[in-house]
Amino acid sequence: MKIDKFIEAAEIFRAFSHPVRLGIVVQLLRKKDCVSNIKRLLAVSQSVVSKQLSLLKDWGIVECQRKGQKKCYFLKNVQLVKDIVKIIEKNSCIKNKIFEEGEK
């Protein structure tokens, strides 16, 4: 069995392995959003959010759409992200859910 076939699958999990990236995808489960709002919600710099969004875009997790001067980001595959978040919540020792349907 060659390792090559596992590389793409590993990249998907890598996308969720950073706290800022995880925070971004959880926010994008709620709604399309722009860098300035995500940075405010996560209390991190704009450059950090932009860097992580760029990686998520490269991995095919998010896409963006221009609205005037702003770029709004959204999930490319919402169900995939929901499933991964459920796996994280179910199989980890975190005390609180990281995503609640309808939460703003």
Side-by-side strand order of the widest sheet: 1-3-2
| CATH T-level topology | Arc Repressor Mutant, subunit A
* Cα radius of gyration in angstroms: 14 Å
Q: Largest sheet, if any? A: 3 strands, antiparallel
CATH architecture: Orthogonal Bundle
Distance between the termini: 45 Å
Q: What does this entry look like structurally?
A:
The protein is built from 5 helices and 3 strands, in the order ααβααββα. It is globular. Strand 2 and strand 3 (70-75) form a beta hairpin. 56% of the residues lie in helices and 13% in strands. The N and C termini lie far apart (45 Å). A 3-stranded antiparallel beta sheet has the order 1-3-2. Helix 3 packs across helix 4. It is α+β, with helices and mostly antiparallel strands and 104 residues long.
Q: What's the topology here?
A:
Layout: H1 4-15, H2 19-30, E1 33-34, H3 35-42, H4 46-58, E2 62-67, E3 70-75, H5 78-90
Antiparallel strand pairs: 1-3, 2-3
